[in-house]
Each structure stands twice: as structure tokens, then as C-alpha cells.
Amino acid sequence: MSLSMDVEATRGAVVVIFFLFICFLIAANFFDSPERLRVLANFLIIFGLAVAVFALIQHLTWEGKLFLDSPDVLGGAEPAGHS
Q1: What is the C-alpha separation between 29 and 34, in angstroms, rounded?
Q2: Residues 67/54, Cβ–Cβ less than 8 Å
Q3: Which of 10, 46, 54, 59 has its CA 20 to 30 A from that of 66?
Q4: Which pLDDT score, from 0 to 100, does residue 70 have?
Q5: What's the whole-model pTM score?
Q6: Do 50 and 58 touch, CB atoms closer than 8 A?
Q7: Where would I find the H helices in 1-83?
């Protein structure tokens, strides 16, 4: 008998929480100065801007398919069975 209602989900959650804690410790040790925090903040701002621009392009050019999804000119096999 177990305390958890879903043992497999609990095991998976424990593994995820463990790795998140390890990532937190690494980040806390790496971003220990204001300069490194500033570099992280600038990176996150630029990355967020890039994702937002990509989303706007995707929204404005929507024709029923994802951005950069073009038909295969050579007629080869599609990855992962997509057609």
C-alpha cells in the first residue's frame, strides 16, 4: 500500500522536482553578481522579443500551416510520418 494515489506520477514528479532543485542550485551559484544577472536579463529580453516577432509573423502570414512548413519539392519521405 502506498500513500500516493498514482505511484508512477509521483515518481515522475519527484524526479522533476529533484532536477529543478539541482538547476536552482546551479543558477544560484552562477548568477551571483549583478553583472551576470544583467546579462541574463538582457538575454531573456532579447529572446522574448525574438519569440514575439516570430509569433507576429506566424499570425500575420497564417495560411493554415505552420511557419517555414513548405512542401517537399523532391517528393521524399516526411519526418515522423507527416504528410
Answers
A1: 13
A2: yes
A3: 46
A4: 64
A5: 0.60
A6: no
A7: 7-30, 34-60
Looking at residue 67, what DSSP letter applies? T
First to last CA, the chain: 47
The three cell numbers locating residue 10: 509521483
| Residues 56, 62: Cα–Cα separation, whole Å | 10
Question: Would you give per-residue pLDDT tens digits along the chain (83 residues)?
Answer: 778 899 999 999 999 999 999 999 999 999 999 999 999 999 999 999 999 999 998 888 877 777 666 665 666 566 665 65
Cell digits for 33? 553578481
Are 39 and 46 in contact by the 8 Å Cβ rule? The answer is no
